[in-house]
Amino acid sequence: MLIIALTPAHTDGGSISTKLAGVILASLSSGAGELSFLGLTHFYGRFSLASWSSGTGAAGLVGAGAYAVATTSLGLSVKFTLLASACLPAIMLVSFFVILPLGALRVATRKAAQYRSIDNSHDDEEVEARHTERDDETSEEDGLLGPAGDGTRFVKASERGKVSQAWASFQENLNRSKGLFFPFMLPLLLVYVAEYTINQGVTPTLLFPLKETPFEQYRAFYPAYNAIYQAGVFISRSSSPFFRIHHLYFPSFLQIANLAILTLHALFNFIPNVYLIFLIIFWEGLLGGLVYVNTFAEIADRVPAADREFSLAATTVSDSGGICIAGFLGMAFEVWLCRWQVSQGRKYCTMS
């Protein structure tokens, strides 16, 4: 955030590359944080997952809403708004190391260390046994090599054992991921591809004459759409203690329908006013949040406790992958839709 805020506003190659580096760092931290913290909710009981989902929804709502209010209503610069927000990640450090009870994590860490110790001892015994067998079979060669050769062969055998163990662990995790793909990962992937293609590729072209809207500038449309979308996400991500869905594909297909409707409107301009667009964007946020929170709630219900932490963390690949795919689709969508609108005499997407 600091990198983006402190680079110049002009768009020469150096400035753009620096800002992109800031975006990449933000994405890396966001993805790593989600993968880690979502998996850790397994150790804090069922309500922790609902709290996590609600918190992520609130973060999007507060972030998008604060940016829209600061830059549109208060007239503050983008640079000042980003600098004022740069201190917020420090709250996460305080929350984790000061507020969050760490006893459950310490117990889990000790148990995992014990399991690793037992496994490693067993592996070392196997390696030593194989080494002893080879010694018996090749005693004449060992006499020529001496003690140094014995130590070298033992280290190499131990290293091969660790590599084999790591490869076996990777294969096991891959097999576990295959079992998660169709019931959990695919519907989450679909909903994220659809909603982020809408957000990044379609909504920048959902523009109306300013006199028919509550806005004074065309650049105000996108932050408003984003804030409305995040409001829907927050509500639905906070709903799991009160409302659950078990058929995850149904809202995913509804989200794809949203993408089709808004794309057709961007092409043919049949929705009469911006307020109906607001309603569809809010509905989009509701659907996205519902699939997110209910996917992980279903994992918590249906996956055995021994596999639950891994399953929660592994499934986050779907939303990250969906956002990545949608990013590439969105670049093509926005350029295509804007060119189409300009060819039809609607040049709003080229205005600010």
Jot down its keywords.
globular, 81% helix, mainly alpha, 352 residues
Q: What proportion of the residues form beta strands (DSSP E)?
A: under 5%
Relative helix content: over 70%
Question: Strand-and-helix sequence, N→C?
Answer: HHHHHHHHHHH
Indicate the mean pLDDT: 85
**Rg of Cα set:** 26 Å
pLDDT below 50 for ≥5 consecutive residues: which ranges? none
**How many E-type strands?**
0
Shape: globular
**In total, how many domains does the architecture comprise?**
1
Number of helices: 11
Query: Structural class of the helix and strand makeup?
Result: mainly alpha
Structure, described:
- The chain is mainly alpha-helical.
- It has one domain.
- Helix content is 81%, strand content 0%.
- Helix 7 crosses helix 9 and helix 7 packs antiparallel against helix 10.
- The two termini are 24 Å apart.
- The relative contact order is 0.12.
